[in-house]
Amino acid sequence: MTLKEAAITLAIVVIFTTLVMVTIEAFYERPKMENYCNDSYYDRPMKYPDPSIFNCTENFMVEENNCYADKGMPTYTYDENGCRVFDTCSDCNIRFEDATKKYTNNMFLILAAIGIIAIFFGVYYKIEFLGSGFMFSGIVLLFIGTVQNFDVLNKYTRILVLTLELGLVIFIAYKKILNVKSIRKK
Predict the structure, then answer these.
(1) pLDDT per residue over 134-159, tens digit each?
(2) Which of 49, 79, 168, 171 makes a 20 to 30 Å CA pair with 110?
(3) Cβ atoms 68, 90 nearer than 8 A
(4) Which sign, positive or negative, has the C-alpha torsion 110, 113, 116, 119?
(5) In a 10 Å sphere around its CB, with 0-12 CB exposed, 13-18 middle and 19+ buried, how is residue 99 labelled?
(6) Residue among 124, 138, 179 nearest 20 (CA)
(7) How far apart are CA 117 and CA 134, in angstroms?
(8) Do residues 112 and 157 share a domain?
């Protein structure tokens, strides 16, 4: 592979990978915390307790601890003295985490599908340096999808995914490297 071909291969990797990521983000946006949690609680100015009548006794530890135990987020209001008062236990963070897990799972499936298609396209494309660009880009997309979703996968699924990806790399080595060397020997 000449220097020009290597440059084109690298350009395909960068541009195709970026194009895929930008296109997915344009049509399938990542969940945002503000869409699940109303942060208007923080928008209003906090009323600070008057130091001369500072008598804030926070008697909501049980409700607050129960809220944290349920993986919720306590919300507060302020009384006329400016003291915090437990209001509700919001589950917005739980809904946000669930939406984020679903998003990362879907992203993994989308990136894996596009990555595998790019790899197979690259393996069977006749012009070597162009095919290598798509092949490497497919590997990069698989890597990105796996890394984004790794903490969501259980330990057995992680093993399965990495085994399948290793098998794919071995397939690429056989089709592109070993197969080419055996053809050249003949």
Answers:
(1) 999 999 999 999 988 888 888 898 89
(2) 171
(3) no
(4) negative
(5) middle
(6) 138
(7) 9
(8) yes
